[in-house]
Write a structure and sequence with these properties.
The complex is a heterodimer of chains A (388) and B (520). Chain A is mostly helical and 388 residues long. Chain A has helices at 10-29, 37-62, 70-86, 92-116, 121-140, 150-157, 174-200, 208-232, 237-255, 257-267, 269-273, 279-305, 316-326, 338-358, 362-387; strands at residues 164-167, 170-173. Chain A has a two-stranded antiparallel sheet with strand order 1-2. The mean pLDDT of chain B is 87. Classes of the chains: A mainly alpha (388), B alpha/beta (520).
């Protein structure tokens, strides 16, 4: 049984390649401005919250729906933290806890209407979008609250401990390099282990060159990021939050019963129900989860800005939804990956960043982002049609 | 010169290198009803799509001659303009629009360009309905207020409105019960008297011998032969032989070596009310019991309450105000959700695999392990992917699912193979009691045989099997004992020795008379 071969899902890697191509195009037209260590650092910090929201949004998209309320909930949770810190002089941890609790409550509120009263998610989250924004303005009395304490700012703008040496006339953080080495070893180890297990069970294997190429691309992206960050100021704290969340949710969506139930629900709700899946419960937790992740994004955003503003998070829901679709999630639900959504978020981020560096106005940026979204989904849909 | 209205000659159609049609010939005489038979995937629908222009001229090889003239259709509109109308298995009606509007959908009655003439629409709709025996329906009612059988007739009325001369029906009776089917077939005969030529694709051989004047059998993309009524041997066995290429001496495999044990599944005093109407009782005092190793059938007309019974037993998936007791393996169990049912070793293989059974965009493995996953393929909520692959592989081989691999998307499988995947899904939950609802609907003879073999295997393993089917020969051929259900009640119980189609119908009729008597 040696000739059992399957090809890797090229679509997933096609997205990575598209991301790299877009990045290189901007490197070319901005004369390498977007390649600087500082810019890489900005890219991570500026897109942290979109990535966090895209992760939660993917679960909603998998059910075949979206959550329009996240932008408002980001603002509401940021405002909660700001008020706790400034008006009540609360401890940072209390403020974070309060903010997460509000996110949880709003998520559950939407979840009850969607799951147990059967109101369409579009309507429910349109309502939470309006209510959340109105509530934020009321709570903040339409004022910006700040500056927030430095210890709190660390969440959005701080760096992990670093150990710098001078190499080639510039600082180089050895902690980043060490973590990159550990991460590379882990990647290679898990690939080898996977192959071994597949061999043991006599499962189909991808051709060696594809596996090596895939690993090569992954390692290249990893080292590119970490090296650039090491050249700047080490690893941002936001990166740590992102990596942990991506790991947790990638695990949930691929390896747990609960995660696969979301896919089953999105693929065929009736069949899922008749297979013993409590689809109401799944809906409830998907939207509750979105509330919590919106709170996390709200905390990160307000910490980075050093203030809570009523306008915060305006339009974030659209960025998160777009990230999922660009990342290959099906509009009808039932298909899509966390990694795809994250790559989608970075495509949006790289576009924003590159166009800003090039000096294009936000108006033009919106046109380009819209066109990229439409183009990505069109290519996706057409390629699927061809396969059938 | 010829009396053929349609001649298709040497048709070859390829899909990315695979030959779906390989030198197919079809000749249809004017005014006849011509049946097209073949196993699923034999190429019947492909051939009809070539004829109706769904696959435009140039994408296939060969010639199509209609009324003696060569045809080059580029789309459906071209063929409809010539009077060729195809009615697909999936109805093309817009459920919330009125009957009249549906009859003239795409063919609107206009007063001036683009403006609908409603009076004319209703009036002409009435005329069309009369032709298909629906003159008593209100043309203004939404089409979804009609049953499936009548909706099928609306499709025919729609074709009549297009001045059809050659009508193609793709499995028109697949979703109909015997009575509705009979009505539809009679209307086909009536159309024939009006001079309309029909091509019917069907798996139901008794229907074909009832209406068809000739039958062409297709197998693996090739025409095998054409049998003409009154000239050739037109028996069902003869047609089956041509379809499968071998003699199926017995359409129902013999069950051997089964020992029937104790009663392991018992439902007592089961009462269920309609989910939307708490005053309407759907099931009344149903009592059934099934022994280990026994296959028990639930027979009855469509709408008799068989599926409702199965669904309500299966974790209250249907109805409200449910009362009664369920005993599995002699122990009374409390089953309120589907999960309870699975935990208590009860499985229900749903009818209508596409809407209730499968995640069509998911692959075979995903679908097979869906129901069993929490119990057998995970630990603390984390899935054991390798065990899933092993189990899916095992069942793919065991019940012969024809696919490239377990990673093939279920939506791309044929009906028979899809049905096997649904069956595997429930066998993987390791049940003691299996309820199979319409397990062979719309699948070909060969796949049916394989499914019957699986049923036998389950019985042999000491499971209690309940089969719900609208095809009476199937119930009679596979079951040891049969409950006849009518209007939500058990109308009778028959053993395999005494059962016949007539006996089942007698039960239903006697029960109906009793009901009518009670009402008076």
């Amino acid at each position: 049984m040696k000739n059992k071969r399957v090809n890797l899902d090229m679509k997933q890697y096609g997205m990575f390649i598209a991301l790299i191509v877009i990045y290189l195009i901007f490197a070319l037209i901005t004369h390498g401005k977007n390649l600087t260590p500082m810019n890489i650092n900005n890219l991570v910090m500026q897109n942290g919250y979109v990535v966090i929201l895209a992760i939660g949004m993917l679960l909603c998209v998998l059910t075949g729906n979206v959550d329009l309320g996240v932008g408002s909930i980001v603002a509401l949770c940021g405002a909660t933290a700001g008020i706790m810190l400034m008006d009540h002089k609360a401890n940072m941890w209390v403020a974070i806890f309060a903010s997460l609790a509000i996110g949880l409550l709003v998520g559950m509120f939407a979840g009850v209407f969607i799951a147990y009263l059967g109101i369409p998610p579009f309507v429910v989250t349109l309502a939470t979008m309006l209510m959340g924004r109105g509530l934020t303005y009321t709570l903040l009395q339409a004022q910006t609250k700040g500056p927030l304490p430095v210890s709190y700012n660390f969440i959005g703008a701080g760096f992990l401990p670093n150990y710098k040496i001078f190499a080639g006339g510039q600082p180089l953080d050895l902690v980043s390099i060490a973590i990159a080495i550990i991460a590379s070893a882990a990647l290679i180890f898990s690939e080898v282990r996977n192959t071994k297990i597949k061999k043991k069970y006599n499962f189909a294997l991808a051709p060696v060159w594809q596996t090596v190429l895939k690993l090569g691309i992954e390692l290249f992206i990893l080292w590119f990021f970490f090296y650039k960050l090491a050249r700047y100021n080490g690893l941002p704290f936001v990166l740590l939050i992102m990596v942990i969340l991506i790991a947790i949710y990638a695990f949930i969506t691929t390896k747990t019963v609960a995660g696969r139930q979301i896919y089953a629900l999105g693929g065929n709700r009736k069949a899922a129900n008749l297979s013993g899946i409590n689809t109401n419960k799944v809906f409830f937790w998907v939207y509750t989860n979105m509330g919590i992740l919106s709170a996390v994004a709200g905390i990160v955003l307000s910490a980075r800005n050093g203030s809570s503003t009523p306008k915060a998070g305006d339009g974030f829901e659209m960025d998160a939804i777009a990230s999922c679709y660009i990342g290959g999630a099906a509009v009808a639900g039932g298909s899509g990956t966390i990694l795809g959504a994250v790559v989608g978020a970075f495509v949006m981020g790289v576009l924003n960043n590159g166009m800003s560096l090039f000096g294009w106005s936000t108006d033009i940026q919106k046109i380009v982002k819209g066109a990229v979204l439409l183009g990505a989904v069109t290519v996706d849909v057409l390629s699927k049609r061809k396969n059938n | 010169m010829s009396d053929y209205i349609l001649e298709m000659k040497h048709i070859i159609k390829e899909f990315s290198g695979v030959r779906a049609l390989d030198d197919v010939n079809l000749q249809v005489k004017k005014g006849e009803i011509h049946a097209l038979c073949g196993e699923n995937g034999a190429g019947k629908s492909t051939l009809m799509n070539v004829l109706s222009g769904v696959y435009p001229f140039g994408t296939y090889e060969g010639e199509v001659e209609y009324k003696g003239q060569p045809c080059r259709f580029h789309n459906l509109r071209d063929s409809e303009a010539k009077g060729i109308v195809i009615i697909h298995q999936e109805l093309a009606l817009s459920p919330l629009l009125s009957i009249a509007e549906n009859v003239f959908l795409g063919n609107e009655q206009l007063s001036m360009k683009g403006v609908i003439d409603w009076t004319k629409t209703r009036q002409r709709a009435q005329e069309m309905l009369a032709k298909v025996g629906l003159e008593n329906e209100n043309v203004n009612a939404p089409v979804n207020t009609l049953g499936v059988g009548k909706q099928q007739l609306i499709e025919i009325a729609k074709a009549m409105a297009k001045k059809v001369e050659l009508l193609i029906l793709d499995e028109p009776t697949a979703a109909l019960n015997d009575e509705e089917s009979k009505k539809l077939l009679d209307i086909m005969l009536e159309l024939k008297r009006q001079g309309i030529t029909c091509i019917i694709i069907s798996h139901k051989l008794n229907e074909i011998s009832y209406v068809a004047d000739a039958v062409t059998v297709i197998r693996d993309g090739k025409t095998i032969e054409t049998l003409v009524k009154g000239v050739d041997d037109f028996s069902e066995d003869r047609v089956i032989k041509a379809m499968v290429g071998r003699e199926l001496t017995n359409r129902y495999p013999v069950r051997e070596g089964v020992t029937i044990g104790d009663t392991i599944f018992e439902v007592k005093d089961w009462n269920v009310f309609h989910p939307d109407d708490p005053d309407r009782q759907v099931l009344k005092d149903i009592n059934i019991e099934v022994k280990a190793g026994e296959v028990v059938g639930l027979a009855g007309l469509m709408g008799a309450g068989r599926t409702e019974f199965a669904m309500s037993v299966f974790g209250h998936s249907y109805g409200q105000k449910i009362s009664g007791t369920i005993k599995i393996n002699g122990k009374e169990v409390n089953i309120r959700t589907v999960k309870d049912a699975i935990d208590n070793k009860l499985a229900y293989v749903t009818e209508d695999r596409k809407t209730n059974g499968l995640i069509l965009i998911g692959d075979i493995k995903e679908n097979m392990t869906l129901a069993a996953r929490p119990k057998f393929f995970s630990k603390h909520g984390v899935i054991d992917g390798n065990q899933e692959i092993l189990a899916a592989e095992e069942y793919r081989k065991r019940i012969n699912v024809k696919a490239n691999s377990i990673n093939q998307v279920v939506g791309s499988l044929s009906g028979g193979n899809q049905q096997k995947v649904v069956l595997a899904k429930w066998m993987l939950t390791q049940p003691d009691v299996l309820i199979l609802d319409e397990p062979t609907r719309g699948i070909d003879v060969g796949a049916k045989y394989e499914i019957y073999c699986v049923i036998n295997e389950l019985a042999k393993a000491g499971k209690a099997v309940v089969v719900i089917s609208s095809e009476m020969p199937e119930i009679i051929g596979t079951c040891d004992r049969i409950y006849v259900i009518n209007e939500g009640e058990i109308a009778g119980e028959l053993t395999s020795e005494e059962v016949s189609q007539e006996k089942i119908m007698q039960c239903v009729m006697a029960h109906n008379r009793k009901e009518d008597g009670n009402e008076k």
